[in-house]
């Protein structure tokens, strides 16, 4: 994170009301679930620069995402590091990864995505979505399916007589790619659900935030594609939001 953004966040943390905690009474057969109270919406001042808007969103969403992480993934590292890639040629993008040295979860935004966001709700939804990937353990799950795909493809290639190192390596690479993509659409929809919950609990409008998809190329329902159709993603947000607004749990 660059120094100017860090300073903006420090100032805005003081201006943005902190979230509160509550324990929801358990349903039959379920343990009590600690959830963040939903703050009043509309706390991000209008007319801020894109960087200041993003800093305000981070100040509001990050503690909610970390609370959700501690609740749903108690053995995970929930100390998110949120960084900005300010390279002028970096296209609009956001992704979740880990610091290779420490294992700390990292959420990265490019500056071009921050500038292209139409409002704070879009930034909050994207941030919640990327945090939800970590909470659901998608990196590890994707790695496991990639390894399994590589093993199966390598064994099949060997059984078919392709025993030279180059052929086996090619088969394993193809298998790993297919394995990694097997559940990628499901992971995206699962992260959309989690992102909706996090953005809503932080006081933002996830459906307004999901309008971000309307400006993205629609991947449709491609065979072995990595992302589901935009319509499916918006439907997921809409259904999740209806449950939350009705007082239900997701």
TrEMBL record:
Cofactor note: Binds 1 zinc ion per subunit.
Residue ranges of domain Peptidase M48 in the record: 65-239
Keywords recorded for this protein, A-Z: Hydrolase, Metal-binding, Metalloprotease, Protease, Signal, Zinc
Cofactors: Zn(2+)
Origin superkingdom: Bacteria
Signal sequence bounds: 1-25
PANTHER family with a match to the protein in the record: METALLOENDOPEPTIDASE OMA1, METALLOENDOPEPTIDASE OMA1, MITOCHONDRIAL
Family named by the database record: Belongs to the peptidase M48 family.
Name used for this protein in its record: M48 family metallopeptidase
Organism: Ruixingdingia sedimenti
